[in-house]
Design a protein that fits this description.
There is one protein chain. By secondary structure, the chain is α+β, with helices and mostly antiparallel strands. The protein has two domains: 8-170, YacF-like; 177-249, Sandwich (YacF-like), CATH 2.60.440. The chain contains nine helices and seven strands; from the N terminus they run E-H-H-H-H-H-H-H-H-H-E-E-E-E-E-E. Helix 1 (10-30) crosses helix 9 (160-175) and helix 4 (82-100) runs antiparallel to helix 9 (160-175).
Length: 253
């Protein structure tokens, strides 16, 4: 099976983008080649662009506090494991503390580094980070692996409380999902919403089906079209019946 996630509001869309970027940053940083560390640097700049939203920290703090209240209300529920509940509440408390301790404008430590900003400015240009354009960057890439890796981790470290907070929120969002099995007749599916709007949809289909879902949703209806996986031609509808699982995910409120 292959799974696709579709965020249905801007807040979840931002969290998913950051989740992907932090994962990519970790992957490239742990590799040894200077080109991997170049990609880690580019990813760091992408993270900076996304976290520059002024309300991101505030949104995470509010959501963590809200989820803490919701989960605390489950303490007397006999169907809920006390140990599991205490564990997630502890994680929320820790993440909240780390976020709250962040001071100043998010990412300002990167903006204050003129050398990093000179690389960022050139990185948006095709081939703009060649050694003749940025000899100081070429010098950094020629340093030993440990030095480059330590630098990357140092630059990323002040942003990690955001990663800790968003991981918890996305975990709770994904775990609080209801899954149904449907069949898209000749590649199309529609379901009326009745005013209920999910925050995240997950579509799972067999890898053997050469099609890709396209999702449109609002408070009235969900529309899914399965498009033929033909990467050389114009997009066309996959005109076969497509069995799939659809998960509706919402944070508890």
């Amino acid at each position: 099976m292959i799974s696709y996630e579709f965020p249905l509001n801007e807040k979840v869309r931002t969290l998913l983008r950051l989740e992907d970027l932090f994962a990519r940053m970790t992957l490239f940083t742990e590799h040894d080649h200077c080109m991997d560390h170049h990609m880690a640097m580019i990813t760091l700049f992408e993270i900076l662009d996304v976290v520059s939203r002024a309300d991101l920290k505030s949104d995470l703090l509010k959501e963590l506090e809200r989820q803490k209240r919701v989960l605390a209300g489950l303490r007397d529920n006999p169907e809920i494991s006390e140990d599991a509940l205490d564990a997630i509440l502890g994680e929320i408390e820790q993440a909240y503390g780390l976020l709250h301790a962040m001071s100043g404008k998010i990412g300002q430590h990167l903006r204050d580094n003129e050398w990093l900003m000179s690389i960022r400015q050139r990185a948006v240009m095709p081939g703009g980070t060649c050694e003749f354009d940025l000899p100081s960057y070429h010098y950094w890439q020629e340093q030993d692996v440990a030095t480059r890796r330590d630098d990357l981790r140092t630059w990323l470290a002040p942003l990690l409380p955001l990663h800790t907070g968003l991981k918890i929120i996305l975990q709770l969002l994904r775990e609080n999902g209801k899954t149904f099995h449907f069949t898209a007749q000749q590649g199309t599916f529609q379901q009326m919403q009745g005013g209920r709007v999910s925050q995240l949809l997950r579509v799972r289909i067999s890898k053997e089906l050469a099609c890709i879902p396209e999702v449109g949703a609002n408070k009235y209806a969900i529309n899914i079209r399965f498009i033929s996986a033909n990467f050389a031609a114009k997009s066309t509808l996959f005109e076969q019946d497509v069995p799939f699982d659809l998960t509706f995910c919402n944070l508890s409120s």
